[in-house]
Description:
Layout: E1 11-16, E2 25-30, H1 35-43, E3 50-53, E4 69-72, E5 79-83, E6 88-92, H2 97-104, E7 109-110, H3 122-127, H4 135-138, E8 145-151, E9 157-160, H5 165-170, E10 179-186, E11 188-189, E12 194-202, H6 205-215, E13 221-226, E14 238-245, H7 281-294, E15 298-305, H8 306-310, E16 328-336, H9 340-353, E17 360-365, E18 379-387, H10 393-406, E19 410-411, H11 424-427, H12 431-441, H13 450-454
Parallel strand pairs: 2-4, 3-4
Antiparallel strand pairs: 1-2, 5-6, 6-10, 7-11, 8-9, 8-10, 12-14, 12-15, 13-14, 13-17, 16-18, 16-19, 17-18
Amino acid sequence: MAADTPPDALLDAVEVTGWGRTAPTVARVARPRSYAEVAAAVLACGARGGIARGLGRAYGDAAQNAGGSVLDMTGLDRIHTIDATTGTVVCDAGVSLHRLMEVLLPLGWFVPVSPGTRYVTVGGAIGADIHGKNHHVSGSFSRHVRSLDLLTADGEVRTVAPGTDLFDATTGGMGLTGVILSATLQMHPVETALMSVDTERATDLDDLMARLTATDHRYRYSVAWIDLLARGGALGRSVLTRGEHAPYAVLPARTRRAPLAFRTGRLPSAPSLVPEGLLGRTTVGLFNELWYRKAPRLRTGQLQRISTFFHPLDGVPHWNRVYGRGGFVQYQFVVGHGQEETLRRVVRRIARRGCPSFLAVLKRFGEGDPGWLSFPMPGWTLALDIPTGMSGLDSFLDELDEDVAGAGGRVYLAKDSRLRPELLHAMYPKLPAFLALRAEVDPRGVFRSDLSRRLAL
């Protein structure tokens, strides 16, 4: 695209939605291929403003902008420099974690933090301050960002470093301080592209929390699948999976020939049309029963591909379609240590309500990072998927929000699509500082999204 192409030529009216497919809206989508085109697109945003978007894996409405502009950043996908000795990488914001793995694993480096999908851009990872199975050890993504280049509303490109207010407002700031153009990242050293995985069953929620509290420090990565339909003495029964990057010495001979090869599996895509109600209480209950029963009571040292351990759903393209046309809500919250009774109460209410969730995970967070709207805090985080067709879902989740906020917890903005704005201040105590800095760097409200309007950010 020529540099003097009129900005309107970059824009198409497109229906845009989050991964949960709950609230699509129409926006004019710009697809810049250079930093200059990003700046031109920002200047052309108009009265409804604009918001940057990556690969569309935010579950809610954070990367939507009804009647305004959306900047598709995936065209800025260059890896500029790699220091294979120190593991430092400089790349555009549109580079995906998948691409970083493809390039860096053969060099002995892995992304420092990965969520449940590798199809996330670097810009999105910073804007949502994503976390992974290793938060109790490695923190969230922003902890590994050495600097970032940010295009602000005045057209200036600022190099932003950790320890500054603008950095803390941007990491977890959901794209509302500006457009991230590039970042310098610190990778994690590995000897192989395999994981050494331990799996065990926990009989109930208390058993699970006791195991995590006592032994999580032994593992870099830890996550528990939890059966949220189990009740009574089996409430919160779980399958706990923990792992480390496998050292070269434990590999079988056939694998040692290419120990750092990045291999991914792929299954057939989910069908575009799925019968409504397929994931009801009965079918999900059967799945949960089978999943728990087939898990080993205890198995140690199993070797798994990185893609199997970190991103099993990435092997099923468009897996979000299985929830039907209505889509699904992913609800994720965190409560602090000392609030275990709140967690128990929420799990009991979910089980009693019969929420048909087969993708439910519990993790233990470590120390939070400085981002003013960053989600993690020391404590317990539960994430679950719920089809929107569940009767009374909105009011039920409103009640859970009240419980979580009352315990000093919060919900994850990158997954939210329905939180009431009056609870935001209770959940995010640094919100006033964020709003003050946002007013300073973007006084005209150039950067806006459906989420920002809904929550008055």
